[in-house]
Each structure stands twice: as C-alpha cells, then as structure tokens.
TrEMBL record:
Transmembrane residue ranges: none
Keywords, in A-Z order: Hydrolase, Metal-binding, Zinc
Coiled-coil features, chain-numbered ranges: none
Keyword Hydrolase applies: yes
Protein name: ComE operon protein 2
Length: 153
C-alpha cells in the first residue's frame, strides 16, 4: 500500500484548511508541525464572530484586504491561545508568507517554512528568513493527491 509522504500530507492539510478561508481574494492555509505532529492549523479569515468577506465583500485598503487575519498568524495565535510552544517547529503554507507573517514566523521560533506556491515573495521576507537561519523550501502540491489516495486505499 502506497503511503502519502510527510511533506505532501502536511501540505494536503494546509490545502484542506484553505478551503475554510472566508476571504475571496486568496485562500491560504497553514499547518504548524513539531516532530511530525500537527500542533496547529489556520486559514485566512475574519476575527471570531466578525463579518466574512464572502458575505460582505473584502475590506480593501491599498490593495490589501484588511479584514482578515492571515493563515500563518491564525496558526501561531492558536498556539499562543492554548500555550503550545512553537520553538523549532515547522510550518507548511499554501503560499509564500507575506512580510508580516514572515516576521511572526521568525519571532515564534519556527525554523523551517514549506510553501506550495509562490506569492509575491517579498525580497525583504526572503532576506529576513536567510538572516535568521530559517530554511525555506518550496513543496509543490498536487491536488490530485486527494483523488489518488481516495481511489487507491
Ligand atoms: Zn477579504
Ligand atoms: Zn501574511
């Protein structure tokens, strides 16, 4: 029996999370992993109880939707909320993190970033990751994997 690789497994989880996104501009998912265990997950959406972009439209200022908390932030904040250490963890994200999330990832002590798709790839974010010794690796995700494993098992 064929098994899904760890990278594809965690990346699949992030894509699954992205399907919960409430922002129509971009759907992003993030999974924080330690010792091959998922410790948190997040997607980009409004604060708890807030109105959703999918219902009210995005709240756009300077070409950014300012309503949403990004997936990476939501995953890190979930760890903060429940007191789960993020030191030396890894994060799997559907898209290359924005500059704000990049800084949060570094500051949370996360040491490896796996991302599926390029997204603007801010030069300063790349620089900061390098500077702080965070390993960044692209892991292309094949959405067919859901189908493949559903059929083969
Ligand atoms: Zn939005
Ligand atoms: Zn971000």
């Amino acid at each position: 029996m064929e098994r899904i690789s760890w990278n594809q497994y965690f990346m699949a989880q992030s894509h699954l999370l992205s399907y919960r996104s409430t922002c129509t501009r971009l759907t992003v998912g993030a999974t924080i992993v330690r010792d091959k265990r998922i410790i948190a997950g997040g997607y980009n959406g409004s604060i708890a109880g807030g109105v959703h972009c999918i219902d009210e439209g995005c709240y756009v200022i300077d070409n950014h939707c300012i309503r949403t908390i990004h997936a990476e932030m939501n995953a890190i904040l979930q760890c903060a909320k429940f007191g789960v250490p993020t030191e030396n963890a890894e994060i799997y994200v559907t898209h290359f993190p924005c500059l704000q999330c990049c800084k949060a990832i570094i500051q949370a002590g996360i040491k490896t970033v796996y991302y599926a798709e390029d997204y603007k790839n801010h030069p300063h974010a790349i620089e900061l990751f390098e500077q702080s010794g965070v390993v960044v690796e692209q892991v292309p995700f094949d959405k067919e994997i859901f189908q493949t494993f559903a059929v083969n098992q």
